[in-house]
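User: Last request for today: this protein with zinc ion, please.
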Amino acid sequence: MALRNIRIYGDEILKKKCRPVQMMTPRTKLLIRDMLDTMYDANGVGLAAPQVGILKRIVVIDVSEAEDDSGSEGAAENTAENMDTAANADKKESGAPANQGGPYVLINPEILETAGEQTGQEGCLSLPGQAGNVTRPEYVKVKALDENMNEIIVEGRGLLARAICHECDHLEGIMYVEKVEGDLFDVTDEAEEE
Ligand code: ZN
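Assistant: Here's the final one, the structure of the complex with zinc ion:
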């Protein structure tokens, strides 16, 4: 397992637009593996390549823990997921398939459709200890390549939809702080280390 250094808000690389991946190489495979390790190590639910200093259009997402452990639905104690995105509004979709949370590797992702709206807490591994309220679509359909460069379609609702939007924004050099409603707030308690 190899962890990469997570770039922190203020780092110029987080403002840059990423380049598409043209072909899979051993180096890119390793990057993806490291991104997953780094995301899990930081208790995140998503991570984009620029957050580890690589300007490629690659994101990894896994919201399965966050959704499985989210306790009773509609609970008031919404802890910002320490990563990219947070867990408000994740009422459980009782009809969702069990593996809906991930992990997902999305290369060159392209959002095809969105629907609805959700407003909730969001955090980012590049801005540890902080969160803010962001409105995102409730449903997102995204087209991407998987790590074998096969085309996949992923549909997400709730937290997964939020994570997809948050991570795709990173590929455009956009941080959620640009979309936050009201002020950022501290979530430095146990929300962070889980
Ligand atoms: Zn982020």
